[in-house]
Amino acid sequence: MRKIPTIFDRNWETNRKVNANLVVDFDFANAVATEKLDGMNIRLTIRNETIVRVEKRRNPTKIQKKQGIVDPWYVDAIQGAPEDKWIFDAVEHSDFKDVPDGEWSAEALGKNIQGNPLNLDHNEVFIFSLPQMRTKIILDDAPHSYEALRSYLRHKKSFIGNDALIEGIVWHHPNGQMAKIKRKDFDLKA
């Protein structure tokens, strides 16, 4: 799994928020913007509409980063392990009818996951890598300039959440390239 680059440079010496310097070479005009969902990144392996494997994202440690390992990967989530309880609850309360066989990157969301920023009343899985699911979170009105994004992210409501703001935006280009920005990347107090 590749880490998705943030589109703007950061103020590394101060607050680590982004500044107006675009640091990605990205074709926004031909990309599709989608809501970045705030949950736990997982991967599901599905066969005949049945979950046969559940994995969770693992980020490199500081030591691994010093060794040059920068991209995250997936490890098995363990049924019955306390730290994976809510992942399996989200899987159990999701419908995988009509999901083709394969490995699908997804987001576990809900009342017991990441502090429930979407104000959901249950846990569920959203398979953002499945094209027909991704169409539910397309942001047709998403800008890509610094000031316009800063204003947009201050007020944009989630398609999935209950009266909740979006976490950010992920742009998907037909060539497979992606780029992102999060609301928390901006200094919204200024």
Record keyword descriptors for this entry:
4 helices; alpha+beta; 190 residues; 2 domains; three-stranded antiparallel beta sheet
End-to-end Cα distance: 35 Å
* Total beta-strand segments: 10
Number of domains: 2
Which percent bin holds the helix content? 10-25%
The number of helical segments is: 4
Order of strands across the widest beta sheet?
Answer: 6-5-4-7-8
Class derived from helix and strand content: alpha+beta
The 3D shape can be described as globular
Instruction: Please provide the ordered H/E string of secondary-structure elements.
Output: EEEEEHEHEEHHEE
Radius of gyration computed on alpha carbons: 17 Å
